[in-house]
Specification:
The complex is a heterodimer of chains A (177) and B (350).
Chain A: H1 20-154, H2 158-171
Chain B: H1 2-14, H2 48-56, E1 61-68, E2 71-79, H3 80-84, E3 89-92, E4 95-98, H4 103-122, H5 132-153, H6 155-178, H7 191-222, H8 231-274, H9 279-318, H10 332-335
Helix pairs in contact in B: 1-8, 2-8, 4-6, 5-6, 5-9, 6-9, 7-8, 7-9, 8-9
The chains are: A mainly alpha (177), B mainly alpha (350).
Chain lengths: 177, 350
């Protein structure tokens, strides 16, 4: 072991020289590295990379699936909502129609009933009038008969008879047939 | 770009060939031409360019701060040749193979140890929801897998080549970054190291291509699918083409890692070359900027090495089932089938 020997030591050579021993050593070192690193590093790491790629791909696929599912659900719900709205509107429209119909019907019936009432009242009035007329006619006849019978029973002179009749007639209410 | 900058700054600093005045008494005679054999492993004597080359070249001498020569010193030296002697020198059939560890090898081992430590410590935090430093490492692993391997090789085959690509990426990354630490050296700035890595890519590429096409298909591919009369021209070109790819890989990584260090050393060297400590006001911030750039380059070069490796592998795999689309001479019908694999086939960029 000589440190800092002042005498020129044999150098390996110039820049472009190729040292066969170094070549062989490089090959040995490199092959050793390939063997060791393949066993302990590249194999596990590449497996891990593939595993991660698989996991990520699966996660992305799952996310895509779930998103599609969510979109489908959303569309379904939207459709349901639209249908419900449509149905409600339809229902309201139909209700209104029915109410209108009912109102018209009720009005018509009320009018009819009123008309009938008026008609029946009118009939009743006519009936009463004719009955009253008949009654009056009977009463007039009775009165005439009574007056005649009075005339007969009193057997008065012509003047007195006339006077009696006129008095009687004046007792009767005016304007009645 | 860095290379241009490097030559520029290097040329500037070499404009004062005899080094800083402060160093004048030190062995001016050893001043070698700029071609740089760092003959002097001990000490930084012998001119600025020698000192710089000494920093980026490999040697059997380790330098580190420690206690030596009876006290604390910043540049203790340990010559592994003297420690180990001839024990690590193998004689294989008359061929002398010196397996003595060098500085770059020690640095590579330290970076590798850090790499193992980083993954060893952080794996406890592994989980479906990552945390802490492991998260960062896993991000890099996921990047190499998804952005480099899967895009260039195809999802079906990518995982088969992942152990190699990941190890190459992290090995280069850690060695690159480790080389930026004080007292460390960049092992990827050594042709022997980058060449070995490129040879691995080459072997795996050819293995993948032969597996995909069969030996017959692979040989047929070498003929380029042209008329047999043209084979004498085509086959050498294709064979040359086989080797340019790893060659480009080798040189790219090496040059990029060397260049950054040379730029930093040159900027610091300007202080001594111009002989004024005022230069430090300019050159140190610039060197810091380049240093930060080097951190980025450390990542980029690891990425590029992996990217091109997987591109070559992917192109080799894509050949089966028809002529290759890479050279543009295949029948037009088949050309677009694998077009995605060859987005940037030209290995010349970067």
């Amino acid at each position: 072991m000589a440190f800092a020997a002042p005498a020129p030591v044999l150098a390996v050579g110039a820049l472009t020289d190729i040292n066969p021993g170094l070549t062989l050593w490089t090959a040995i070192t490199f092959l050793f590295l390939v063997a060791v690193l393949s066993r302990f590093a590249w194999g596990p790491i590449v497996k891990m990379l593939q595993e991660r790629e698989r996991t990520i791909r699966e996660a992305i696929d799952a996310a895509r699936r779930e998103r599609a599912e969510a979109e489908r659900l959303l569309a379904e719900q939207k459709e349901t909502l639209a249908r419900a709205t449509r149905e409600a509107a339809e229902l309201a429209r139909r209700n209104q129609q029915e109410v209108e119909l009912l109102r018209q019907e009720l009005t018509a019936r009320a009018r009819k009933e009123a008309d009938e009432l008026v008609a029946s009242a009118r009939g009743l009035i006519g009936e009463e009038r004719s009955r009253a007329a008949a009654e009056l006619r009977g009463m007039v006849a009775d009165l005439a008969i009574e007056a005649a019978s009075r005339l007969v029973t009193a057997s008065l002179d012509d003047r007195a008879q006339r006077k009696l009749v006129e008095e009687y007639l004046q007792q009767l209410p005016v304007g009645r047939a | 770009m860095i290379a241009t900058l490097a030559t520029l700054v290097l040329g500037l600093s070499l404009a004062q060939p005899e080094g800083a005045p402060a160093r004048a008494p030190e062995t001016p005679g050893v001043e070698v031409s700029a071609a740089t054999r760092a003959e002097e492993a001990g000490g930084h004597g012998g001119g600025l360019s020698t000192a710089m080359m000494h920093h980026v070249t490999d040697s059997y001498v380790l330098e580190f701060p420690g206690v030596c020569e009876g006290g604390f010193r910043w540049n203790c030296e340990l010559d592994l040749h003297e420690v180990l002697g001839e024990r690590m020198v193998l004689e294989v059939g008359g061929f002398r193979l010196d397996m003595t560890p060098t500085r770059h090898l020690i640095m590579m081992w330290l970076a590798s140890a850090l790499l193992l430590l980083a993954f060893g410590l952080s794996t406890g935090k592994r989980g479906l929801v990552p945390r802490g430093f492991y998260n960062f490492l896993e991000m890099l692993v996921a990047f190499v897998r998804n952005e480099i391997a899967v895009k260039n090789i195809g999802a079906a085959d990518a995982d088969r080549f992942l152990p190699y690509l990941l190890t190459a990426f992290f090995f280069i990354l850690f060695v690159n970054l480790f080389g930026l630490l004080p007292f460390a050296a960049t092992a990827t700035g050594n042709l022997a190291v980058t060449l070995t890595l490129a040879v691995f890519t080459f072997v795996i590429t050819q293995y993948a291509a032969i597996r995909a096409m069969g030996l017959g298909g692979w040989l047929a591919h070498l003929t380029g699918g042209v008329h047999p009369l043209l084979w004498p021209i085509m086959v050498p070109v294709e064979i040359l083409g086989l080797f340019t790819k790893p060659f480009a890989l080798t040189v790219r990584l090496f040059a990029n890692m060397i260049a950054g260090h040379i730029v930093i050393l040159s900027l610091i060297g300007l202080i001594f070359a111009l002989g004024s400590s005022w230069v430090a006001l300019g050159s140190v911030p610039m060197a810091l900027g380049i240093f930060l750039l080097e951190v980025f380059v450390g990542f980029v070069q690891a990425y590029i090495f992996c990217m091109l490796s997987s591109l070559f592998i992917g192109a080799g795999l894509a050949h089966h089932g028809g002529h290759d689309d890479e050279h543009g001479h295949a029948d037009p019908g088949a050309a677009d089938v694998h077009a995605s694999h060859v987005a940037g086939t030209s290995p010349g960029h970067g």
